[in-house]
Design goal:
This protein is of the alpha/beta class. The protein has 6 helices and 10 strands, in the order E-H-E-H-E-H-E-H-E-E-H-E-E-E-E-H. It is globular. S-adenosylmethionine binds next to strand 5 and helix 5.
């Protein structure tokens, strides 16, 4: 199986710590900077990338927008670029491995309810595919795409955890309004390394601000 290429068009202002964790998880999943491209990173952000991401072995980061990458332009002309789009009329299937070489995602904060910011990427005219009706984090969307395309598993045969509640103690928990892939060993939602800890600290901070 030929490894595919994954592009995240970075659409947030900065790169927050949780985004760093997501991008590191993506790099780890897809085989590093040879297969993970981060596009539309502003020149000032590119010059001050967090050190974990400032490494071409981890991610190929550029200020160019996705369509300006010569290899993407060529693949797009042949119809071989797919935009993972929650509003696409067709779901991704293992057969799409024959159709597409590049998979493009929005580097967008998940919002509840979703605001369809992925729509900004439709201007490129890539074919769209949906990953089912639930909103996923960007790293989950890439994990699921890779399972469908590279492992040839149907979308509906993947085990998921929807809207997990992360419990911090007897009283406190945080509900995540997203779909995650279920870890087969632990039954827990797969999240980037360090993400739970990050969410817990964020929750404590918000609680302290409230007091
Ligand atoms: C956190 S989601 C953002 C969804 C979002 N709230 C919006 O405004 O579009 C980040 C990216 O993951 C991909 N994604 C997430 N869930 C998806 C789904 N169910 N189908 C297709 N793509 C999805 C899309 O590429 C999306 O841009």
């Amino acid at each position: 199986m030929v490894l595919k290429d994954y592009v995240v068009e970075h659409m947030e202002e900065g790169i927050y710590p949780w985004v760093v964790l997501e991008y590191l998880a993506i790099s780890n999943d897809v085989g590093g900077g040879n297969h993970f491209h981060l596009t539309s990173v502003t020149p000032s952000l590119l010059a001050s990338l967090p050190k974990e991401l400032d490494d071409p072995a981890v991610v190929h980061a550029t200020s160019q927008e996705v369509i300006s990458l010569p290899t993407v332009k060529e693949a797009a002309a042949a119809g071989r670029v797919c935009l993972l789009d929650p509003a696409a009329p067709v779901d991704l299937s293992p057969e799409d491995a024959q159709v597409f070489d590049w998979f493009v995602f929005g580097g967008i904060l998940g919002d509840d309810p979703p605001r369809d910011r992925t729509g900004e990427l439709r201007k490129y005219g890539f074919q769209g595919r949906r990953l089912g009706p639930f909103q996923m984090t960007t790293d989950t969307a890439i994990r699921v795409t890779k399972i469908v395309i590279e492992d040839q598993v149907e979308l509906n045969d993947i085990e998921y955890v929807d809207n997990p509640e992360l419990k911090w103690n007897k009283q406190e928990s945080t509900q995540m309004p997203f779909r995650y892939v279920k870890d087969k060993t632990t039954g827990e939602p797969i999240m980037p390394k360090g993400m739970r800890e990050h969410i817990r600290k964020d929750t404590e901070r918000a609680f302290d601000d409230f007091l």
